[in-house]
Amino acid sequence: QLLPAGTKVLRLMPNLPCVVQAGAIVFARGSRASDEDAALLQSLLVSCGLCEEVPESYINIHTGLSGSGVAYVYLFAEALAEGAVKMGMPGGLASRIAAQTLLGAAKMMLETGEHPAKLRGDVCTPGGTTIHALHQLEKGALRATVMNAVEAATERACDMGED
């Protein structure tokens, strides 16, 4: 509203891993921005990682999912490593293995296109270690807690946009 009439607007939201060219960026274009403008922006940003054009209404959701989500992943990685330290593994090694575990899992999701539930099921064997561990995560309401975190961050992004 404050820009001169006819101004081309492309709104984008990156996340921190863009620093290492492994980020996730979404962008939305205003009514004056053309297909060529969007293609140019995408060509400039693709070196930062995943870059997708989305409806404007998804920008705040992306903030809750991916902008803030990076911190959720760091917290989870820290918890994984601390669990290994508790069981006797040195901290540095545990942190490296936790990071590689997250990287490998994410790479499998992206490269196979499989739903995370299917990939999770592939890891479980009847009566095995993974299903016992997943039961503990479910008792702690991990999925509901993460969904609530995305919701809270999205709502806060919406509130901040109105200020």
Automatic annotation (TrEMBL):
Pathway(s) served: Amino-acid biosynthesis; L-proline biosynthesis; L-proline from L-glutamate 5-semialdehyde: step 1/1
UniProt cross-references to PANTHER family, sorted A to Z: PYRROLINE-5-CARBOXYLATE REDUCTASE (PTHR11645), PYRROLINE-5-CARBOXYLATE REDUCTASE 3 (PTHR11645:SF0)
Domain of life: Eukaryota
Domain Pyrroline-5-carboxylate reductase dimerisation: 56-158
Name listed for the protein in its UniProt record: pyrroline-5-carboxylate reductase
GO molecular function: pyrroline-5-carboxylate reductase activity
The species this protein was found in: Chauna torquata
The organism's taxonomic lineage, starting at the top: Eukaryota, Metazoa, Chordata, Craniata, Vertebrata
Record family assignment: Belongs to the pyrroline-5-carboxylate reductase family.
PROSITE patterns, A to Z: P5CR (PS00521)
Enzyme class, UniProt record, top EC level: oxidoreductase
Signal peptide from the UniProt entry: none
Single biological process term from Gene Ontology: L-proline biosynthetic process
Catalytic reactions on record: L-proline + NAD(+) = (S)-1-pyrroline-5-carboxylate + NADH + 2 H(+); L-proline + NADP(+) = (S)-1-pyrroline-5-carboxylate + NADPH + 2 H(+)
Pfam family, one: P5CR_dimer
EC id: 1.5.1.2
Keywords of the record: Amino-acid biosynthesis, NADP, Oxidoreductase, Proline biosynthesis
